[in-house]
Amino acid sequence: MDAQGRGRADNIDPADQWVLNPNTGEYELRLSPSAAQPAVPGPRRAGSRQNGGAGRGRSATAPARQRAEAPGRQAPGRDAPDRDAPGREVPQPRRRRPVPEEPLPGRRGRRPAKKSKAKKALLWTGGSLAFVLVAASVGGYLYIKHLNDNITSVSDDGASTGGFQKDKAINILLIGTDKRTGKGNDKYGDKGSVGHADTSILLHVSKDRSNATALSIPRDLIVNVPDCPTRQPDGSTKVIPGTDNVRFNTSLGQDDRTPSCTMRTVTALTGIKPDDFMVADFNAIKTLTTAVGGVDVCLGKDINDKDSHLNLKKGTQHIEGETALAFVRTRHAVGFGGDLSRIQLQQQFLSALMRKLKDNDTLTSPTKMVDVAEAATKALTVDSKIDSIGKLKDLGMELGKLNPKNLTFTTVPVIDNPAETVHATVVLKKPSAPQVFQMVRDDVSFTEVKQQKKKEKAAEAARLKGPQSAASEVRVRIMNGGAVAGSAQETLTWLQVNEGVQKSENAGNAPQALSKTTLEYAPDQAAQARKLAAIMGLSGSALKPGESVTNSQGLPAMTLTLGKDFQGAGIPLTPPTKAPEDVQKSTADKVQCAK
User: What is the DSSP secondary-structure string of 138-196?
Assistant: First the structure.
């Protein structure tokens, strides 16, 4: 075999003439165009490094094998082993890396076989998925940290219950301040304002999450703002003195009052202690509505309010950003032109916002949810008990259980202040306002709710039905379980003198305080219990069937324990089961047009 036949001609390295065939996966000898081509390609596979001999794991044509094994000769691209050396193993073939990109002169080279589209897709998908998972775990942590950094929190100064709990009713105080902070808000006037509690809503969510009440508190309601211990930047506590007979909105901002002062004012007014608070400024309205893509509201007439800059036509309108802010600030062009008329607009807006937040288009859009998270964390100020994304998420999960049709928007019943000739402020309307407060305290829904609750109410009402004993036959022990000191003796005197319940006695203080007044009785005392309930104005829920006890004379008697809800002898304790007829209310699932 001459030099050319062995691949030595034209300065071509023989190793470069052994090329991997992509179709067969084997090496083939490719000679120059001037050389005679072998009749049958001589494929050669690189032997496994774990195979001992040169011939294992490879296939070759007979001529190629003879050339490789001839003494003194070498196969292209590798040194011939010394097979006669004693104790020396035959080395495995050395694999040459093919260079198919450079075709031999005069011959067109073959392109490497392409990977199938399916394999490419699998590789891209697998690689991308792995990257996304890693990026999500790292980026998710960083994003949560970013959102946490967005949150502004203020101490509740001990004015709250200590934060909401998942197994109890929830009371959140929502405060809208008119402080002109944020881009573009100085154009609304009162640029240097410290801000007031301009919009205040006490959101009560029932213990079983079946219903909720959003109770708006008019900003011009005359209240007594109590003393307010407030934490200072240096860690000390300063007591901001309270003031009597002032507008509710002065509970925030004035005299350096913080949201905790508004919380204390709400507690003094309603008897309800909020769990947490959230404060929203003008930017909250603009950014939140933009984040969800706007909300739909309805107008019963054309509105062009120069003070709020709202200019909208009658009918359903889609609003966001500056227009949404103008909508909730409008008052002169709707209703009687006062704050009470504006409250109705604000309630309609919040209903629309809630519907949009629970809409599938929002919940299934990652972009919108991220925008909402950004807007909410930047625009809201919260108390220190809910100052992280994790805590806000837990609160959101509880609120998310609520059906909008069982969320009632209502306003504290008020009347014009009779002490004013020009009515600029309002006062509580009695007895409607106290009745509304008691409904919220007692977790009573303003809407129809679950059948189970109806069954419970029916069972309680059944305890009051049936024959009643004569007042002279009622034997009862009276205990003070949280009422004002002296209430037990006051009630005893009233029962004996006014109601003829002579077989009654003062049994002193109860072992523990109770939030509600109760009457415990044995089954054979049911008729006596119904009579005393009618005299005292007790509800069926106050009646607690139990075991018989004895009085100081050793005779069987019932036990009446006066709780914190006791308001005085002769004042009925029957809690309301529905809202007063004169209370304006609406539910979040319905659109009502403002007029």
Answer: HHHHHHHHHHHHH-EEE--TT-SSSS--TTS-EEEEEEEE----STTGGGGS-TT----
CA dihedral sign of residues 506, 507, 512, 514: negative
Q: Let me know how many helices (H) and strands (E) the chain has, helices first.
A: 13, 26
| Partner residues linked to 519 by β-bridges | 543, 560
User: CA 559 to CA 491: how far, in whole Å?
Assistant: 13
| Total count of residues recorded for the chain | 595
Average pLDDT over residues 163-192: 74
pTM, to two decimals? 0.59
Q: Is the dihedral of CA 357, 359, 364, 365 positive or negative?
A: negative
Q: Report yes or no: 160 and 273 within 8 Å, Cβ to Cβ.
A: yes
pLDDT, tens digit (0-9, with 9 covering 90-100), for 67-116: 444 444 444 444 444 444 444 444 455 555 554 444 444 444 455 555 45
Give CATH 3.40.630.190 domain extents, the chain.
153-441
Q: Please identify, in words, the CATH class of the domain defined by 153-441.
A: alpha beta
Encode 162-174 in three state secondary structure. Answer: CCCCCCCCEEEEE
Q: How far apart are CA 87 and CA 368, in angstroms?
A: 76
Per-residue pLDDT at 66: 45
* Whether residue 371 has pLDDT greater than 70: yes
Buried b (16+ CB within 10 A) or exposed e, 204-223: bbbeebbbbbbbbbbbbbbb
Strand 197-205 relative to strand 303-305, pairing = unpaired
Best mean pLDDT range from 170-179, 245-254, 332-341? 245-254
**303: three-class secondary structure by DSSP:** strand
CATH architecture for segment(s) 455-562: 2-Layer Sandwich (3.30)
Q: Where in the chain is the domain with CATH 3.30.70?
A: 455-562
Q: DSSP string covering 391-448, please?
A: HHHHHHHHHTT--GGGEEEEE--EEE-TT-SS---EEE-TTHHHHHHHHHHTT--SS-
Instruction: Decide if 261 contacts 240 (C-beta within 8 A).
Output: yes
The residue with tokens 């495995």 is: 92
Contacts of 561 (CB under 8 A, 6+ apart): 479, 480, 481, 510, 514, 517, 518, 519, 520
Phi, psi of 119 (to 5 degrees): -65, -40
Q: How far is CA 281 from CA 15, 241, 284, in A?
A: 78, 26, 5
Determine the Cα–Cα distance for residues 510 and 504; give it in Å rounded to an integer.
16
What's residue 134's pLDDT?
40
